[in-house]
Every structure is written in C-alpha cells, then in structure tokens.
Design brief:
Distance between the termini: 52 Å
Largest sheet: 5 strands, antiparallel
Helix content: under 10%
Radius of gyration: 23 Å
Number of domains: 2
Strand content: over 45%
Number of strands: 19
Amino acid sequence: MLGGSMTDGSGFDNGVRAIRDSGSGFYVLARTDSHDGDIQYRMPMGEEDLWLLHIDSLANIIWENTYGGPQLQASKALCRGADGSIWMAGKLIGDSTGGYINVNYLDTDGWIVHADSMGNFLNQRVIGANKEEQVDVLFPLSDGTVLAIGSYQSELDPTMPHTPGFPESGEGFTDIFIVRLSPDNDLAAEPPVIDDRSWAVYPNPSDKEITINLPKEKGLFNIAVYNMEEKKVISRQSGISPVTLSTTKLSPGTYMIRLSDETGRSGSKKLTRL
C-alpha cells in the first residue's frame, strides 16, 4: 500500500498513470490529499496535488514528490522526455494562484509540470482560457520537445485572459488543442517548413517506384523515407528535379517521406506502398 491518511490515488477521473523507468522500476503519477505516511514533501496549501513516485519492482519507494497550489490539481498524463526528465499533466480546478502555479485563467485549466529524473521541480505551464480546459496526453519527441494534447470548450471570451495563441473559436462546443513545448516549458517555435504545394510525390500509392518533383528553389535537398517505426529506409540528396526512387525493396505499408533543404526548412508527405 502506498499513501497517507487522507485520500490518495486516482480520484473521480481515474487519473493514476504509470510508465517504466530505464530498469525494472516505475514512475507513478496520482493525486494526494495527505501530508503524512508516504507523502513527505507536500506544501500545506489546499486541496489535492499531483503526487509522483519512483518505485522499484517490489513497489518500494525510491523517491517521491508533490506538485500543486492552493486548490485541486488532477493528474491525466505522464511521460519521459528524450533527456530522461519527467513530464506530468492534467488540470487545475479553481481560480487561485500560489505554490507552483503562477497564473490562472479561471474555471478549469490544463496544467503541465516538468521535473528532472529525480523528481525535482523544473518548470510548469498553464494552458487555457476562461472555460474548461485540460491536458489528456503527453507525447515526447526525439528533439526534446513534448506534444501536449487536450480538450477545451471553444466558445471563449477573447476579452478574458488566456494563454497566448490559444484558439478563441473552434468547430463545436468542445474541441481538441495541441501544443508543442520545449524543455523549459515555453511554447516551442515551429521549425520553418517547405510549402506543401511546392513539391509532389507520385504515383501514390506506389508499387515499384515514385517520382518526387522538388521545389523550384535552387540548392540541395535531402530526401528520406521512414517506416512507421521511424527507421530510415531510403536516403537521397539531389538538387535536380524530378527525382526517381525505387520502392521495390519496401514492404507493403505506410511510410513517411521527409524533404529538407540547406536552410533548415522541412516538409513531409505520407506514402503508401502497395
């Protein structure tokens, strides 16, 4: 058993999450309302906080820590970044600031916490506006950034405070938002892209070979084909258009073609191999 004398665990939204560490142990994210027992590092500020534990294969606690503020924080998502750091997310319920929370956009906001591999707090980010928002999924990328995916009620009041760039309207009553965060929890700048209309891949689907029409700009382009496991299966560099690639050695399935140039711009298109 893990916990203290008050309410610990998932709460009403089944928010317990667990992922493997690099060995035989686990990181576990839950919520806690206790200040005793296994919970030793909680600030006495208010309602339930996020509780992160690192346990071994026998459920012995290696370390634990809590993160929160004056009101209720609920856990929804957990992942490890490319550098081994730990990302946690969920939602804030309430309209107060304090503790680890520096801003509040009223009602329910999405909340993301970044900690190092020992659970030490690094940074946090509140994502939201004046209605109900929460983060449901965290997905780590190989460049160290993390995708945070959540839901929001789309009929927002643009005169109210909200996360810069947060959508002020949507397709229906409740919509999905996606943000990309850098390791310092700032909104990561999007990399420069190659206009999708400036290059083409055909035939697609393909069974023997494909032709790629490169953008009209002068310079070398790197062409790479990846399978769904992110393994590069074809690589070519060319500055002359069109480029023809054989696909006879590829197994039937879905692939991704990525095109990049000398300035750092990139683009991608899906390829189906028959």
